[in-house]
Specification:
heterodimer, A: alpha/beta
C-alpha cells in the first residue's frame, strides 16, 4: 500500500494533539483507518524543560509560563482575558496542556453527572459515571497512575501504582485534617512512583507544571502518542487550523490550515474530531462560518462558546516553624480532602470543592519574589531573616471550586486580536457566579482553620487567584436535546453528523476536581462508540 | 523609547549598580549570607538577562549620581523613590537580583537548598506517615451515591 501523500484525503482528521486528541487517536488505531492529527505546536524535548537549568524558576516565570499571553511563543495564540478575573492557561504542542500540567488525576464523582437531579441546578449529563468507569481504568493504565486504593470519599478504583510520597508537608497538613476530623487521602497522580513502560519513576524535582525532565510525569507525548504513531497514525506538527469546511451535503469535509511557513493548506477528511479544549474548540467552530452556519459551525443551538467553566481557585498558606521540604516533590500531587466536595444542606451554596495540598513550586526565587509582592519579605535590611522564616517552611492548600455553567460566561471571537497567521483570536468574558463566590469564601475559611489546626504560626489567605485557568470546560456541551446542547452523548455534533468533539468543552458541569482523567476517559468512550457504529456512523 | 541594545556600563554606573545590589540584598548581620554585590552579576546579565541589561543604564540614571557614596538609609530612600515612580522597572530589578542571587550554588547551600538544577540530581523526600488513614476511613460518610 502506498504511503498517502501529504494532503491526500484521510478517513479521520483530529485537530489537536493534547490529552483527548492523543487518547482518541490511539483508540481508533485498531480500525486501520487513515488517521491524521494536526497540531499547531511542536514536539517538546525533555532536555528543554526548565529543571535542566539552574535558572529553572525564572524559566517557568517566562518562556515556560503556563499563560500563553506571557509565554508568547509563535505556536501560541493570544487570548483576550480583559473581561475575566481568571487568566487562561494552556500549552500548544504535542501533548497539549499535559506538557505543563501538574498531573493531579482525580475522577469526577457519580454525583457530578446528576447535578440537576440531585441539587436542582445546571443540567444532568447524558452519560453516567458507570458509563465512563471502564475507560477511567483503561486510561489509568495508559497514563501510569499512582495512588492508594480505598478512599471512602471517591468511587472505588485501584490505581496501578503505589502512591507518591506525601513528604513532611503532607504529614503536617494531614495532622490538621485529623485534628478537625476531616477527610484526607494521598492524591491520585499521573506520575510514576515506579518505573514503567520505559519511563523512570519520579525524582521529586518539584515544578511539574514547567515540564518533567525525568519523564515520570505522564503527558500525551510520552504515553498515547508513541503507541498511536507506531500503529500508523500520522501526527503533523506546526499546522494551525483556521476553519473546518463544509461540503454540499452539509457534512464537514476537511479543514483549512496554515503550515509552519504560513502557507495555506487544504486537508480533506471523512470524519473530523475536535480536541482543542474549551477555548480552542469554540474558537475554530466560531471561525468556521458558512451560509448554512452563519454563527459558526455546529452552532444552531447558539451554545458554542457559552457556559465556560473554570475551577476557580483560592489559596491558604500556613507558615510553620519546622522545615517541611516544601520546594521538593510533585507540585500538584500530595494529599487532598473531599470533606466539602458534595452538597451540604447546612451551607449557603450547592455543590462543593476539593482542598488540594500543593508543594514543589516554592523554590527560593519564587519565595523571595512572592514575598516582595506581598510585602512579607522585604528587600534590604531584614531580607535574610524574613526569607529564612518562610523558605521551605510553608504549606499551601488550594480551594478548587466547582463552577456552574452560566451562558454569560463565554468564549467569543475578538473583533481585533489575531494570531500570527491572522486568525481571529478568542475573547473570554467571565465573572464569578454567586454560588461559586460563596463556596470560595467557605473554602478559604476552612483552609484557615486547617492551617491553624496543623500548627501554622502564620496563616495567609489569597482570594481568587488570577493565574488559575487550567481547566477549560463546557463551551460545546453534550446533551440529548439539540436545542440545549452542541453534541450528543457520544460527542457527535447535533448539526454536522461527521463532526465530533472529545475535549473538555463537552462537559455539562465541571465537578470540583481536575478534569483531565474524565476528559480522557470520555475520549476513549467516544472512540469506542465510533468503532462500534462505523457502519452507521452518520445516521 | 528604551534602547534595547546592551552597552558596557561605565565605571560610574558599575559603582552605582554594585551599591544597588548591596542595598537590595546586603550581607546578613552575622556575615553568613553574602551580599548580592559579591556575586558575578555582570556574568548573569550577559548570560541570562540581556533585555534587562539593556534597560539598566536608564534605571541607574534615575538614581542620584552620588548613590554609591550614600549611607544605607539614604540609598534605600532613593530606591524607594524609584520604586514609587516606576514600580514595574523596580520589580524587574528585584526579580533579576533575586534570580542571580538564589541560583548561586553557595547561596543555595547556605539557605539549606540544593546546588545546581533539579535534574538530573533529583530530590529525596520521606514517604510520609499514612497510619491515620484508618481513622479517616472510619469517620468518612462515603461519597455521595446516586
Amino acid at each position: 500500500m502506498a504511503t498517502p501523500e501529504r494532503n491526500d484525503p484521510v478517513d479521520v482528521l483530529i485537530i489537536g494533539a493534547g490529552a483527548s486528541g492523543a487518547a482518541i487517536a490511539w483508540s481508533l488505531t485498531e480500525t486501520r483507518m487513515r488517521i491524521l492529527c494536526l497540531e499547531q505546536g511542536d514536539w517538546v524535548t525533555p532536555q528543554s524543560y526548565p529543571t535542566n537549568h539552574k535558572n529553572y524558576e525564572a524559566m517557568y516565570a517566562g518562556p515556560f509560563h503556563m499563560d500563553p499571553n506571557v509565554r508568547g511563543l509563535a505556536t501560541d495564540y493570544p487570548i483576550n482575558v480583559q473581561d475575566s478575573p481568571i487568566d487562561v492557561l494552556n500549552f500548544n504542542g504535542v501533548g497539549g496542556s499535559t506538557i505543563l500540567w501538574a498531573a493531579h488525576f482525580p475522577r469526577l464523582h457519580p454525583s457530578d453527572f446528576r447535578v440537576r437531579t440531585l441539587d436542582g441546578v445546571a443540567a444532568d449529563w447524558p452519560i453516567t459515571y458507570d458509563d465512563l468507569e471502564p475507560y477511567f481504568a483503561q486510561n489509568d493504565e495508559m497514563m501510569g497512575v499512582s495512588g492508594l486504593a480505598g478512599d471512602p470519599m471517591s468511587p472505588p478504583h485501584t490505581p496501578p501504582l503505589p502512591p507518591l510520597p506525601i513528604g513532611r508537608v503532607g504529614e503536617v497538613v494531614a495532622g490538621g485534617f485529623d485534628k478537625l476530623g476531616w477527610h484526607w487521602w494521598p492524591s491520585d497522580a499521573a506520575i510514576l512512583s515506579q518505573a514503567r513502560d520505559g519511563r523512570d519513576k519520579c525524582k521529586n524535582l518539584g515544578p511539574c507544571v514547567s515540564g518533567c525532565a525525568q519523564g515520570a510525569k505522564a503527558s500525551a507525548d510520552n504515553t498515547y502518542w508513541p503507541e498511536a504513531i507506531a500503529s500508523g497514525v500520522e501526527l503533523r506538527t506546526r499546522c494551525r487550523v483556521r476553519e473546518i469546511t463544509l461540503g454540499p451535503d452539509g457534512m464537514a469535509d476537511g479543514v483549512i490550515y496554515y503550515d509552519a511557513e504560513g502557507v495555506e493548506q487544504v486537508q480533506k477528511a471523512e470524519v473530523v474530531i475536535m480536541a482543542c479544549n474549551g477555548i480552542g474548540t469554540p474558537r475554530i467552530l466560531l471561525n468556521s462560518t458558512s451560509a448554512a452556519f452563519p454563527d459558526g459551525l455546529a452552532n444552531r443551538s447558539g451554545l458554542v462558546g457559552k457556559n465556560l467553566m473554570f475551577h476557580p481557585v483560592g489559596m491558604v498558606q500556613g507558615v510553620f516553624e519546622e522545615r517541611l521540604g516544601t520546594h521538593k516533590g510533585p507540585n500538584g500531587c500530595c494529599i487532598l480532602s473531599k470533606e466539602f466536595y458534595e452538597t451540604g444542606p447546612e451551607r449557603d451554596f450547592v455543590r462543593g470543592y476539593n482542598m488540594q495540598v500543593v508543594r514543589g513550586l516554592s523554590g527560593p526565587l519564587t519565595v523571595a519574589t512572592q514575598g516582595h509582592r506581598t510585602g512579607r519579605i522585604p528587600w534590604g535590611q531584614g531580607h535574610h531573616d524574613a526569607f529564612a522564616k518562610r523558605f521551605d517552611r510553608s504549606a499551601n492548600v488550594l480551594i478548587v471550586c466547582e463552577d456552574l455553567p452560566e451562558p454569560c460566561n463565554q468564549v467569543t471571537l475578538d473583533p481585533d486580536l489575531v494570531d500570527s497567521d491572522g486568525i481571529p483570536a478568542s475573547k473570554v468574558t467571565y465573572r464569578l457566579g454567586d454560588n461559586t463566590q460563596k463556596m470560595m469564601t467557605h473554602g478559604l475559611d476552612r483552609g484557615e482553620e486547617l492551617m491553624a489546626a496543623a500548627g501554622a504560626v502564620e496563616v495567609v489567605r489569597t482570594e481568587l487567584q488570577r493565574v488559575s485557568g487550567w481547566h477549560l470546560l463546557g463551551t460545546a456541551r453534550m446533551g440529548d436535546d439539540p436545542e440545549t446542547s452542541v453534541v450528543n452523548a457520544w460527542g457527535r455534533s447535533h448539526d454536522v453528523k461527521n463532526l465530533f468533539i472529545v475535549d473538555g468543552s463537552v462537559f455539562v458541569t465541571a465537578g470540583g476536581v481536575n478534569p483531565t482523567s474524565t476528559i480522557q476517559a470520555n475520549a476513549l468512550r467516544i472512540g469506542d462508540a465510533i468503532k462500534q457504529n462505523l457502519a452507521n456512523l452518520f445516521d | 523609547m528604551t534602547d534595547t541594545t546592551t552597552r558596557t556600563l561605565t565605571e560610574a554606573e558599575q559603582q552605582i549598580l554594585r551599591a544597588v545590589l548591596d542595598t537590595v540584598v546586603p550581607a546578613s548581620a552575622d556575615g553568613r549570607m553574602p551580599s548580592a554585590a559579591e556575586l558575578d552579576f555582570s556574568a548573569y546579565l550577559a548570560e541570562q538577562a540581556a533585555a534587562f541589561a539593556a534597560s539598566l543604564p536608564e534605571f541607574l540614571a534615575a538614581l542620584p549620581s552620588d548613590f554609591a557614596s550614600l549611607g544605607v538609609a539614604a540609598r534605600s530612600a532613593a530606591l524607594e523613590e524609584v520604586a514609587a515612580a516606576d514600580p514595574a522597572s523596580f520589580d524587574q530589578l528585584i526579580f533579576r537580583v533575586y534570580d542571580c542571587y538564589y541560583q548561586n550554588d553557595a547561596v543555595r547551600l547556605l539557605i539549606g537548598g540544593e546546588p545546581g538544577p533539579p535534574f538530573p540530581r533529583g530530590n529525596t523526600i520521606p514517604q510520609g506517615d499514612l497510619s491515620s488513614l484508618d481513622a479517616v476511613i472510619a469517620r468518612s460518610p462515603g461519597y455521595r451515591r446516586v
